[in-house]
Amino acid sequence: MGNLIKVLTRDIDNNGGNFFLDFENAQPSQSETAVWEEVNQVLTEARVILDDLQTYRGAGEEIRQAIQSPGVERVQEKAWSSVVPLVAKLKTFYEFSQKLESSLLRLLVVLTCSGSTPTQHLEQKQALARQFAHILHFTLRFDELKMTNPAIQNDFSYYRRTISRMRINNLSGDAGSEVNNELANRMSLFYASSTPMLKTLSDATSKFVSDNPDVPIENTTDCLSTMACVCKVMLETPEYRSRFTSEETVLFCLRVMVGVIILYDHVHPAGAFVKTSNIDMKGCIRVLKEQPPSGVEGLLNALRYTTKHLNDEATSKQIRSMLQTN
């Protein structure tokens, strides 16, 4: 039956979400291998990035002591030596966002090219669709971790203030060599966002559409809406949800669903929340709310605060009500 299995009997091309996509086991065909291997290198690094972010503790105590004792050289040096390796990590995270963007664009080229419907692309390129899903899963997980770790912005702000002070006093030496001023500005913009990875992918997807006028926008939006529908169907259909070998796959599916909704909302001119949207937003929100609250509150917040069109007049009161915080 393959990894992509039709789950309802209606016309599949008119009902893009009515099949099961095996997020756990889909393997690349020969025609997918070149792109798959390229993207797989980035996804392998993504696991390391998440581990590093999860264990990121920050230099809050050292910074606090340095601010309280501005004239004590030993305290200043301790704070500086604590912050510099942390900023090197933040630089790695930022540079990885650019690699992730390139991988997303690589997959979009393949999954939106003309000649096949979104469903056919997913059926014929299941392993690449799985990688697309993994990019979205990583993105939402990274942003969840970043959002709950204020040390990241505190450390970077202290680093920039200290570098500025060193330059004024002509003491910089090679202190700023890890992050030059131009890179520091770009990193500041990146970390200023509450969801920096999601913003990177949203901007990249919008740019992909504008930079490729020969590719109809529907190719991209239909790919995204189809993926959202796939996730919703798998999550709300016990027979197919039971095929997941791990509960973690449920959360994976939820993150992917939310990720593609947000991308769709940024790319489609009318967004994801209008009645004419190809995404069943009420159904997707309902599926989210049926999960344990601790696992999905961050995802509901992503829909509330990182989408583009939720507060448009065209959004129904019922959808707004469903997304209201308790």
TrEMBL record:
GO biological process: regulation of actin filament polymerization
The CYRIA/CYRIB Rac1 binding domain, residue ranges: 18-320
Membrane-topology descriptor: Lipid-anchor
Gene Ontology CC, one term: membrane
Family: Belongs to the CYRI family.
Keyword ATP-binding: no
Superkingdom to which the source organism belongs: Eukaryota
Keywords, ordered alphabetically: Lipoprotein, Membrane
Gene Ontology molecular function: small GTPase binding
Subcellular location: Membrane
PANTHER family linked to this entry: GH09096P
UniProt entry tagged with the keyword Lipoprotein: yes
Name the UniProt record assigns to this protein: CYRIA/CYRIB Rac1 binding domain-containing protein
